[in-house]
């Protein structure tokens, strides 16, 4: 009873799950152990003898001592799918949680205790509703900020074809920081700095003055909150390509930047088919002769083209921007 808040939330969770009868009639592919358990799920005394990962993790927890007496923790635990574990949990709930008129509630010996838990379950549901509302409002604020930011960009008609988002690579920052600064202060572009680019600058800073200057510049801009130049955290979903990282670091870095660009287009609400012209990678590499690059680098460049993400030399991009006036 000292964990009433936990049980209240568990009761709300379990009411979202289908009944044993619904699971039996669903035609889902379940293992024999779970099928047998579902057939006995409505009996007064459920034979709870199948171990879930949670049972093993919470073994010896004092509040669950009685519930765990029937388990043989030395037996081999069947390998359940996530669906089968949920099915088992739906029936297990009758061990500790009893059905009320409106929802499953924690069993208490008194009417006062039952009323308190019912109110707690209602409060938990209201709290979940408020949390969803807060998340929705935060998402709307983010979308509004992006909309206002993009609306504030100075976009002469001649420049409307240029990408609003620029992603410089490590070479562009080391070799042409002054140009990147001009692009960032123009009010025409939003400069996105992926985490992998910062890591690249950090790797070069001991021997490369341009890397050190870039790090100081970026730290200052991030600290004062310049809305036209932003750091993008590692997207965390990319295939790491560890072998490629050892064999061709330039190609690996380009793939990582490309992953960041794809994540950027998704975060702005664009589908996979609606990324053309939105993001441009500006690089210090010369791109006139793609055949001069390694095969992995050529593949990375082609992957960018397939994703409708342009790659341009920073000098050429800067020249094009100036010519457009």
Automatic annotation (TrEMBL):
<feature type="signal peptide">
    <location>
        <begin position="1"/>
        <end position="23"/>
    </location>
</feature>
<keyword id="KW-0732">Signal</keyword>
<protein>
    <recommendedName>
        <fullName>Nonsense-mediated mRNA decay factor SMG5</fullName>
    </recommendedName>
</protein>
<dbReference type="InterPro" id="IPR002716">
    <property type="entry name" value="PIN_dom"/>
</dbReference>
<dbReference type="GO" id="GO:0042162">
    <property type="term" value="F:telomeric DNA binding"/>
</dbReference>
<feature type="domain" description="PIN">
    <location>
        <begin position="164"/>
        <end position="287"/>
    </location>
</feature>
<dbReference type="GO" id="GO:0000184">
    <property type="term" value="P:nuclear-transcribed mRNA catabolic process, nonsense-mediated decay"/>
</dbReference>
<dbReference type="GO" id="GO:0005697">
    <property type="term" value="C:telomerase holoenzyme complex"/>
</dbReference>
<keyword id="KW-0963">Cytoplasm</keyword>
<keyword id="KW-0539">Nucleus</keyword>
<dbReference type="GO" id="GO:0070034">
    <property type="term" value="F:telomerase RNA binding"/>
</dbReference>
<dbReference type="InterPro" id="IPR045153">
    <property type="entry name" value="Est1/Ebs1-like"/>
</dbReference>
<keyword id="KW-0866">Nonsense-mediated mRNA decay</keyword>
<dbReference type="GO" id="GO:0005737">
    <property type="term" value="C:cytoplasm"/>
</dbReference>
<dbReference type="Pfam" id="PF13638">
    <property type="entry name" value="PIN_4"/>
</dbReference>
<dbReference type="InterPro" id="IPR011990">
    <property type="entry name" value="TPR-like_helical_dom_sf"/>
</dbReference>
């Amino acid at each position: 009873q000292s964990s009433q808040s936990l049980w209240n939330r568990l009761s709300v969770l379990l009411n979202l799950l289908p009944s044993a009868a619904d699971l039996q009639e669903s035609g889902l592919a379940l293992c024999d152990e779970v099928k047998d358990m579902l057939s006995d799920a409505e009996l007064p005394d459920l034979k709870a003898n199948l171990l879930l990962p949670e049972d093993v993790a919470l073994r010896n927890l004092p509040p669950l001592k009685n519930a765990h007496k029937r388990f043989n923790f030395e037996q081999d635990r069947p390998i359940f799918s996530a669906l089968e574990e949920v099915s088992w949990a739906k029936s297990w709930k009758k061990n500790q949680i009893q059905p009320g008129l409106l929802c499953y509630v924690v069993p208490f010996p008194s009417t006062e205790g039952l009323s308190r838990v019912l109110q707690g379950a209602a409060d938990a549901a209201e709290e979940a509703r408020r949390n969803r509302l807060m998340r929705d409002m935060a998402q709307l604020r983010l979308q509004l900020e992006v909309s206002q930011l993009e609306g504030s960009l100075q976009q002469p008609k001649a420049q409307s074809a240029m990408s609003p988002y620029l992603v410089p690579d490590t070479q562009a920052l080391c070799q042409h920081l002054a140009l990147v600064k001009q692009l960032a202060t123009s009010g025409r572009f939003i400069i996105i700095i992926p985490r992998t680019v910062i890591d690249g600058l950090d790797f070069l800073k001991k021997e490369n003055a341009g890397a050190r200057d870039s790090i100081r510049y970026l730290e200052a801009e991030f600290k004062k909150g310049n809305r036209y130049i932003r750091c993008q955290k590692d997207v965390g979903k990319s295939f790491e390509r560890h072998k490629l990282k050892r064999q061709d670091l330039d190609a690996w870095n380009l793939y990582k930047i490309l992953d960041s660009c794809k994540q950027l287009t998704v975060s702005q609400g664009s589908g996979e088919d609606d990324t053309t012209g939105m993001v441009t990678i500006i690089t210090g590499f010369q791109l006139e002769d793609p055949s001069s690059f390694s095969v992995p680098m050529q593949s990375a460049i082609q992957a960018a083209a397939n994703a409708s993400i342009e790659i341009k030399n920073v000098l050429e991009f800067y020249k094009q921007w100036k010519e457009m006036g």
